[in-house]
Amino acid sequence: MSEQIREQVSAFLDGELPNSETELLLKRLTRDGELRESFGRYALIGEAIRGTTRGLLTKGFSGRVNLAIDGELIPVNGHVSPLRGPRWWRPFAGAAVAAGVAAVAVVALQQRAVAPTLRGGAPVTARMAAPMPVPTREAISYTVPTTSPAAPAAMPPARLTNYVFAHSRYSSGLDLRGVIADLLIEAEEQQPAANEAAHVAP
Amino acid sequence: MTWVARNRAGWLIPCAVVGALLAAVPQRSRGADDPRDWLQKMNQALATRNYDGTFFHLSEGRVETMRIVHRVRAGRVSERLQSLDGSGREFVRDNDELTCYLPDQHTVLVEPRPEHGPFLGSLPQFGADVNEFYRIESLPATHILGRAARVIAVNPKDQFRFGYRLWLDEKTAMPLKTQLCDSRGQVIEQIFFARLDMPESIPDSDLAPAVRTEGMRWVRQGPSHDSASPALSAYRASELPPGFRLTVAGAQTIGGASVPASHLVYSDGLATVSVFVEAPSDAPGAGARVTGTGADTGSSAPAEPPMQGLARVGSGFAFSTVVQGHQVTAVGEVPAQTVEFIAHSVKSSGGADLPRH
User: Taking residues B11-22, what's their average pLDDT?
Assistant: First the structure.
């Protein structure tokens, strides 16, 4: 991805990209899967560092990351553009920096209450470790078991699509938007089940 | 008001309850900056305006580009939601019928959807019951797409439900960006517009599907006129996460199966979980549900084995288990623990008399 595209992506995520350039970026994103992946990573890492990981990363930490990456900025015409200011994701000049920030995001995301998983029916690894307790406001404890590549397959994506489509009729609020969007996304091929938590019974 | 105006039969009762609570509970002074007023403006804008926009849907670092076209003309609502870069799937709603084109599965799903809300969703009024489990607040204003935006957060108070952050256009109240967040405030999924036009008129051609349907199977599914069997209808969740209650109990044809499943809907007023209870495929009269979306007979193809386990469906979850030989599947845009909780608690209650949709 060229520096210009990086600039456009980061400006867009900052809400600073002019409409004319937004149209161009949109066209590129529509036809360039690799760019979409990068775009998604930038957005994800951005959210991980900006305010949306409250309680996980300290303000000071974010500042240090910003400073560290600002240090990697390659000045344009002798200075960093004051218009758009420092953007931690913009240059990603070195693989080490990118890997470092990605690792931060991964660590942050691992703190999520739900395990990172797959679309369209692939199983997740989170499973109740104990019988379901009486409803409380407290967190339910989860154990994430190790992956077992020999485990059987999970719910067929097409079957899940049927359930989700039927459910969308009753989705309330903005859930409906998410459900509809999820239905539009192509179900990925079944991947090996992660553990016995998701399997087809004999 | 839009949400109420959907007039989904099953929601009439909870809506009436919310309305009664709103009337009964003293409202604190609400000014122009009250976030609940802004959410209502958003609902109004989503339901009544013409718009044509392209947005990004981000989940787990993956990006999909989608186009939404929404037209209201002479009281008739038409909508088209299209994946621009991935599956080629499209949803087209023409007033009271929703058609889902799934070229990757060579299938077209059709379902009646009278008075359905906009694809981009809307939020209900926040009555006392919703306020008990969600906290709504305004965050500092910002700019997005070069426009001034209000930022509203709907935060869940526990881990059984997700929350939202919404960036609403100061002028139109259209949501320029929305985030689905967990109880810690971490983003699970987000949608933001790259382009959003609100034209006076939208031509029919912009609402026509681009998918070629030659050779595709057409499957009609939806609420069944036939009741689920008494055995299926007797199943209910015996325990629920705080705030959830049964709002709909009825029958639903799933994927062209010949026998309807029992479909239960549980809601806390904002989040919704569907529970499907299906007879074993080898039960008398059960009818085999076939593998794949394109089942159109459900009677001669090999039956699927029962499922057990948790699966991610977009930003929500599905959890399947077998209860007394019946397949029980809970699906919802809620945390994994919520669908697991509900599915695990489903039991035969011996035939309760509950409202149907």
Answer: 41
Give B-chain residues touching A52 at CB under 8 angstroms: 179, 181, 185-187
Within 42-61 of A, beta carbons closer than 8 Å to B belong to 43-44, 47, 52-56
Tell which residue, A143, A140, A197, has the closest CA to residue B160.
A140
Nearest to B130 by CA among B268, B289, B332, B294: B268
B17 contacts B246 by C-beta, under 8 angstroms: no
Closest residue in B to A143 (Cα) is B337
CB contact under 8 A, B272 and A172: yes
Whether B209 contacts B110, CB under 8 Å: no
pLDDT exceeds cutoff 80 at B43: yes
DSSP state of B105: G
- Residue closest to B271 by CA, chosen among B89, B129, B80: B129
What is the C-alpha separation between B188 and B60, in angstroms, rounded?
7
CA distance A43 to chain B (A): 7
Listing DSSP states for B172-203 in one string gives T--EEEEEEE-TT--EEEEEEEEEEE--S---
Residue of chain B with shortest Cα separation from A25? B194
- pLDDT, one tens digit per residue, over B106-159 is 888 888 776 556 666 656 666 667 788 999 999 999 888 788 999 999 999 999
Answer yes or no: are the C-beta atoms of B56 and B158 closer than 8 Å: no
Question: Which residues in chain B are closer than 8 Å to A38, comparing Cβ atoms?
Answer: none
B320 CB neighbours in chain A (<8 A) are 155
Distance, in angstroms, between B40 CA and closest chain A CA?
12
Query: What CA–CA distances, in Å, run from A139 to A109, A117, A134, A182, B157?
Result: 17, 20, 12, 27, 11
A171 and B CB contact within 8 Å: yes
As a whole number, mean pLDDT of residues B47-52 equals: 92
Q: Are B74 and B91 in contact (CB under 8 A)?
A: no
ipTM of predicted complex = 0.73
Spatial contact of B355 and B17, defined as CB atoms under 8 Å apart? no
- pTM for the model stands at 0.65
Please choose, from the candidates B326, B279, B276, the residue with its C-alpha nearest in 3D space to the C-alpha of residue B298. Answer: B279
Q: How far is B206 from chain A (nearest CA, A)?
A: 18
- Alpha-carbon gap, residue A62 to A88, rounded angstroms: 10
Q: Are strands B346-348 and B245-253 parallel, antiparallel or unpaired?
A: unpaired
What is the spatial distance between Cα A65 and Cα A55, in angstroms, rounded to a whole number? 16
What pLDDT does A28 receive? 82
Note whether A176 contacts B117, CB cutoff 8 Å. yes
